Amino acid sequence: FKGGDTCEYLLSSGRFLGEKVWQPHSCMMHKYKNSEAKNCLIDKHVVFIGDSRIRQLFYSFIKLINPQVKEEGIKHGNIPFEDKSASIKVDFLWYPEVNGSMRQRIKSWTEGSVAKPHIIVVGAATWSIKIHNGSNEALAQYKINITSIAPLLEKLAISSDVYWVLQDPVYEDMLSESRKMITNEKIDAYNEAAVRILNSSSRNSKAKVKVFSVSKLIAQETIMKSADGLHLPESSRDTNAMILMNVYCNKIMKPIDGSCCQPQPPLTLIQKIAFCFFTLSIIGYLIISLIHRNNYRKNKSCTDLESGEERKPAVGTPNVSTLEMLLHCFCKLGLIMTYFYLCDRANLFMKENKFYTHSSFFIPIVYILVLGVFYTENTKETKVLNREQTDEWKGWMQLVILIYHISGASTFLPVYMHIRVLVAAYLFQTGYGHFSYFWIKGDFGVYRVCQVLFRLNFLVVVLCIVMDRPYQFYYFVPLVTVWFMIIYATLAVWPQIVQKKANGNCLWHFGLLLKLICLLTCIYFLSYSQGAFEKIFSFWPLSKCFELNGNVYEWWFRWKLDRYVVFHGMLFAFIYLALQKRQMISEGKGDPLFSNRVSNVLLFISVVSFLTYSIWASSCKNKTECNELHPSVSVVQILAFILIRNIPGYVRSVYSSFFAWFGKISLELFICQYHIWLAADTKGILVLIPGYPMFNVLVSTFIFVCVAHEISQITNDLAQIVVPKDNSTLLKRLLCIAGFFSGLHFFSAMQDQSRH
User: Fold this and answer.
1) What is the reported pLDDT for 521?
2) Which residues pair with 350 in a beta bridge?
3) What is the pLDDT of residue 319?
4) Eight-class DSSP state of 349
5) Which of these, 328, 338, 329, lies nearest to 285 by C-alpha position?
6) How many other CB atoms sit within 10 Å of the CB of residue 11?
7) Which of 71, 76, 658, 710 to pair with 735, CA 20 to 30 A apart?
8) 25, 30, 231, 328: which is the annotated catalytic residue?
9) Which residues pair with 654 in a beta bridge?
10) For residue range 666-709, what is the model confidence (pLDDT) as tens digits?
11) What is the pLDDT of residue 316?
């Protein structure tokens, strides 16, 4: 289903999500703030011409520029409005009937050097019905008058945006006696006449008068809430004004969450190069595959005609060369990236706004929890936070976060605060996992570092190129990357303290604790010194990675939000491994972690702590204040969950294979959702099948999960090729990667220069 002309859809069709949220067909509507409206309309002149209904629309429109405006002034007269700070003029001209007076005013703008308004909004009919008592003669005269005005409006539409507002239906039961002749049947007849006559003579697409018919649909749902049966309630008028603002401003302001009326962004130089690279990879892979296929046929066992013996193919030749595997990976990746681009950059598929309801979030949560419990298996080992358990933990957290994003649950503060704990738990696992590896293995080699960095960043780097987005846009990957480097630096810097060394002398444990205290001090200092933090990350080339919209504030905010949790993960790993080494915990199958009494006490404290945090998070009233407390208290619920999950032996010895499967591709799921499950960079929802929301979610989810799984496999395959174990080969690859990023920076600079 092609998206088509989203402006046409915005002006003519849509539906209500809930009571007040309007969803245009196929595209997303941006909610303009006063500052954005002013920036869009700077030095512009807007004119509303018509009756009392158009006057209502005029007031709703100017309130988008200045919310302090009150609906005062002459009811049956002209009303001027001016915002001198932005040089914006908005006028309402009282012309309740389509007649000679209206024609003369419109004609004056088409003559000579008179300044034409940039936006003209016209509409009238109910006064003609009322004054002439709904007579057929009045309708005939209305048709004649519109016929005389239409060419003038079309002439103005060449250089200005001209909108004809169709008449909204009325709620006939509420109309006063003096308005009883205004029936919906009459209104339909007038609307039909206007639509038929307007643009009938115009062949130039640029000279078309835009018919604003969406207000009819809005009125059909809300007119019964009208005070007099004729005029729309305020919320409906505000929706119409917002639609009008989107039609005009989206192509100027280009908001991410306003896909209606936005043209497809042009391909950048880097995107063109990426397209050529993937195309050549696909062609190269096909050529090599054909060559190998022909060679296989030639070498296939056959009978020698002279000796009568069977020939055998050459032995020892590898089935798949490194080059073929590389091209195969890039071939698949190229096809997948094409899908990414089509979903979220080309105007091919539809996009819709999110709309939160409690059922849209909690019902899927219950459903996946039931599925997760259904697929329960025994673990291979029964250690605390064993591999299956951490995969399970990542899996169910990722699924909850995905449901949170697609349902728009960020508007509900209690859910938001609990999701913040899940993000913190990911970072806790980062601290726990990497600390455990370095502490036990003592492997601080370049190979390990490069493997981790490649697996974390490969997909994001490709998306930055293909989707034309900065690295910091995918904020979670920079976050875990920086924390990995911090963990590595903390443990690798002299003196290197690992478990093997510490077992020989207990003093090394105090040395490690001293390192952790130094790390905590640095974190504390940077979290309360925004200036120092921004200076560090404003130096080139760090600034190229961590700037978003020209500054590093977003990066500072994201880092600060979970600043202590990685440290908590490292500290927990240190304490746990020390207890394990001294055999102070029991990790046998079915055994409680501690003695029965201690286990019961800790379990009780954990449950109470878990519930206490949930009660606190659910009672949050102010997001800013709760975010300030979050870094210090999130560890309470994380530790409580770990103890509840691991103290009882029977709970520790089982895991959900369903959640663990998703856990293995959790990073790919988190990143891929930006463009092929959600839309408009996570602001909306991708619509592959319009009109069937549930079926659409099923289809898009299936494709999304398959793609994430495939990308995970591609990343693993490429990691083996790009990051080899041999140090000399690895050094060459690192030089190639440095050359790649230098070239990327060069083309990026060229791109920025051409934009400016």
Assistant:
1) 96
2) 687
3) 58
4) S
5) 328
6) 23
7) 710
8) 231
9) 378
10) 999 999 999 999 998 899 999 999 888 899 999 999 999 999 99
11) 41
Our CA angle for 362, 368, 369, nearest 5°, is 85
Distance CA 683, CA 260 (A): 13
For residue 709, what is the enclosing H or E element?
helix 693-722
State in Å, rounded, how far the first CA of the chain is from the last one.
36
Closest by CA position to 196, among listed 221, 213, 219: 213
Is 228 catalytic? The answer is: yes
The catalytic residue among 87, 228, 632, 742 is: 228
Q: Is 228 exposed, middle or buried (0-12, 13-18, 19+ CB in 10 A)?
A: exposed
Q: Is the pLDDT of residue 112 over 80?
A: no
Q: Are 462 and 714 in contact (CB under 8 A)?
A: no
Instruction: Please write the tens of the pLDDT for every residue from 243-295.
Output: 999 999 999 999 988 989 988 888 999 999 999 999 999 999 999 989 888 87
Is 434 annotated as catalytic?
no
Query: Phi then psi for 42, rounded to 5 degrees?
Result: -60, 130
Burial grade of 429 (CB within 10 A; 0-12, 13-18, 19 or more): buried
Residue with tokens 């996992």: 433
- Residues present in the chain in total: 756
Residue whose token pair is 């839309």: 679
CA angle 155, 157, 161 (to 5 degrees): 155
> What integer is the mean pLDDT of 530-545?
88
Q: Give the integer Cα–Cα distance in Å for 344 and 469.
A: 12
Residue 200 has pLDDT above 80, yes or no: no
Instruction: Spell 288-307 as b/e; 16+ CB within 10 A means b.
Output: beeeeeeeeeeeeeeeeeee
Angstrom CA distances, 685 to 338, 674, 696, stand at 19, 10, 10
Q: Which residues contact 23 (CB under 8 A, 6 or more apart)?
A: 14, 15, 16, 17, 29, 352, 353, 355
Identify the residue whose tokens are 């921004």: 534
CA 723 to chain CA centroid, Å, is: 31
Strand partners, 82: 89
Among candidate residues 5, 13, 52, 709, the one labeled active-site is: 52
Distance CA 300, CA 522 (A): 66
Annotated catalytic residue 52 = yes
Which tokens hold the place of 707? 């793609």
Distances (CA, A) of 165 to 173, 249, 523, 632, 673: 24, 18, 58, 55, 39
* Distances from the Cα of 590 to the Cα of 146, 379, 390, 647, angstroms: 85, 11, 19, 10
Q: What is the full DSSP assignment across 317-329?
A: --SS-HHHHHHHH
Secondary element (H or E) of residue 80? strand 79-83
Cis link prior to 266 (omega < 30° from 0)?
A: no
